[in-house]
Amino acid sequence: MANAIRYFELNTGAKIPSVGLGTWQAAPGVVGNSVAVAIKHGYRHIDCAQVYGNEKEIGSVLKKLLEDGVVKREDLWITSKLWNTNHAPEDVPAALNSTLQDLQLDYLDLYLIHWPVSMKKGAVGFEHKDLTIPDIRSTWRAMEALYDSGKARAIGVCNFSSKKLGDLLEVARIPPAVVQVECHPVWQQPKLHALCKSKGIHLTGFSPLGSPGTGTVKIEVLKNPVLVSVAEKLGKSPAQVALRWGLQMGHSVLPKSTNEVRIKENFDVFDWSIPEDLFVKFSEIDQKRLIKAFVFVHESFGAYRTVEELWDGEV
Q: Catalytic residue among 7, 43, 52, 304, which?
């Protein structure tokens, strides 16, 4: 019998559902339906962010599902993220309150600093001239206060390199519960995985299927020959194998889809497993970070002159 791996326990004692629905690049008018469909098919973990511009719609759907008794609030895991324009300590609680208002919730299960990048307050879009120098220590103190208040039941970071996570751990009163990063068979993050394991931090992989629908990513993870061959041997789809690989690696995964068939398929990863002889083949895959975030790199604005600096060489 396969080990289902439906949850992972965090350093707070909370259990995070291992498969969540990603909502990045899920268009307004579509995202609400995706959330309702996902919850209908058993998902209990929804990954949101203020910058995705769709939290109000998600909030309306959650409110209806909760009012109709389809699901209880305590059975849901809702994550959101602090955007780059709200890093100033006085702006952090207001940003969370705004997200809670949009999602029509009293608390978040997890609140993450979205990037180790700060921008001018009120800036819209991704203009280089709006980049400022982040003070992660001060922002984190404000995040710790939200944890103390109970409005964010766990706190963490997103898009941090191993070095940036290590630097934060040296000054944090409350260590991050979660680090959410790009993670899939073509970008496996072994160094960050090892650091998280040694410090009791849970890793969540976004774009676990390699963001096939974004149009900006040139490598198709789901067409990787190792993945395709393992999928054929197991009678599963490459997407299911990529997700199950993540669970067996010990991290939660956030597949994004707005297609009901795929939403359902992506959740069918619990009653089977990848045997060891096939699992080891994943270590042969050439590694490449797909989401580089050039938009946060500039020769004179902000903190990072090169992509290497943003990721501390982990590219």
A: 52
